[in-house]
Amino acid sequence: MKTLITGTTGFLGSAIARELLKEGRAVRALVRPDADMRNIDGLDLEVVHGDLRDADSVRQALKGCNVLYHTAAYYSLWDRNRRTIYEINVEGTRNILQAALSAGVEKAVYTSTVGCIGLREDGAAANESTPMDPATLSNDYKRSKFEAEGVAREMHGRGLPVVIVNPSTPIGPRDIKPTPTGKIILDFLNRRMPAYMDTGLNLIDVSDCARGHLLAEQRGTPGERYILGNRNLSLREILLLLERITGLKAPRVRIPYGVAYAAGWVSEMVANHITGRPPAVPLAGVRMARYFMYFDSARAVRELGLPQNPVDKALEDAVRWFCQHHNLPSFKG
């Protein structure tokens, strides 16, 4: 049985590839010709080049494959060409899931995001059935993923056995880009975080999140979705954990939302009209931080057996990896 993975060179995709290889699976990776290959260097997998926006290349990549993991996405809080996000995340998803349907794959796992799950007004943890308020789709990335999840449901209605998984915030090693959460850790280590916003996230060890994808393939019900998360923490609590792990002081100053929004607005105006480079303070990130992204993974734990290894250890692993790969001093642990 051969499995195709998209997004294999990324943080989560490479962790999924490692989990599949541990089980002795034959893995084919669909990779852009210009992709950074560091996360999969040395892995025993087949690499084919293509682009989600090229329907023919994804059809070719799926030939001979029984299972699809569609993990690739354009995860960006800013892009001067906003259309690119939708071309990759929505139309790219349509291309590859249509190809999977035509090829008759036995199972597909689509990686969505908890950004497509509704949030509770009382701040309590949301689950898969919490209604979505469109106002919380605060940026193009979240809107594009919400549309792409609709494509996955459409393809299931047409006969594709696809399971949707909604990862929360994976943390751990090999966050080479880094992700926005990885950047928080890196900024903390570099002492570039003098203050924080009053927000919250649900964290999960990236290895547990990857294992959850395999469990979704094996045990998940097609057409259903499963939150892959673990522990809800405020940003303040995350920074205090980093303080305990590293011995570095966490910031004590909280930035009001209005101040952060103004800084994001100015930063984005400069990026759009002057520098053409990503803003120092992405406005989309500020808008996301307005909400406490707390989620309940009980269904995935109960029905899939999603692991719940300690988030503290995953943060420690992430810190160690960033220190090793960014020439930073070792932390006290």
Please summarize what this structure is.
The chain has 11 helices and 12 strands. With 333 residues, the protein is α/β, with parallel strands linked by helices.
Secondary-structure blueprint:
Blueprint: E1 2-6, H1 11-22, E2 26-31, E3 46-49, H2 55-62, E4 67-70, H3 83-103, E5 107-111, H4 140-157, E6 162-167, E7 169-171, H5 180-189, E8 195-197, E9 200-205, H6 206-219, E10 225-228, E11 231-234, H7 235-246, E12 253-255, H8 257-275, H9 283-289, H10 298-304, H11 311-325
Parallel strand pairs: 1-2, 1-4, 2-3, 4-5, 5-6, 6-10, 7-9, 8-12
Antiparallel strand pairs: 9-11
Beta-strand content estimate: 15-25%
How large is the radius of gyration?
A: 19 Å
Question: Uncertain segments of ≥5 residues (pLDDT<50)?
Answer: none
CATH homologous superfamily assignment of the domain at 2-177 and 203-232 and 294-309: NAD(P)-binding Rossmann-like Domain
Count of individual helical segments: 11
Strand order of the largest sheet: 3-2-1-4-5-6-10
Element-by-element helix/strand order: EHEEHEHEHEEHEEHEEHEHHHH
Helix content: 40-55%
CATH architecture of the domain at 2-177 and 203-232 and 294-309: 3-Layer(aba) Sandwich
End-to-end Cα distance? 42 Å
Which structural class do the helices and strands define? alpha/beta
Largest sheet: 7 strands, parallel
Shape category: globular
Task: Count the beta strands.
Answer: 12
CATH class of the domain at 2-177 and 203-232 and 294-309: Alpha Beta
Walkthrough of the structure:
It is built from 11 helices and 12 strands. Strands 3-2-1-4-5-6-10 form a 7-stranded parallel β-sheet, with helices on both faces. The protein has a 3-stranded mixed β-sheet with strand order 7-9-11. Helix 4 (140-157) links the parallel strand 5 and strand 6. The chain has 333 residues and is α/β, with parallel strands linked by helices. The protein has a domain at 2-177 and 203-232 and 294-309: Rossmann fold (3-Layer(aba) Sandwich), CATH 3.40.50.720.
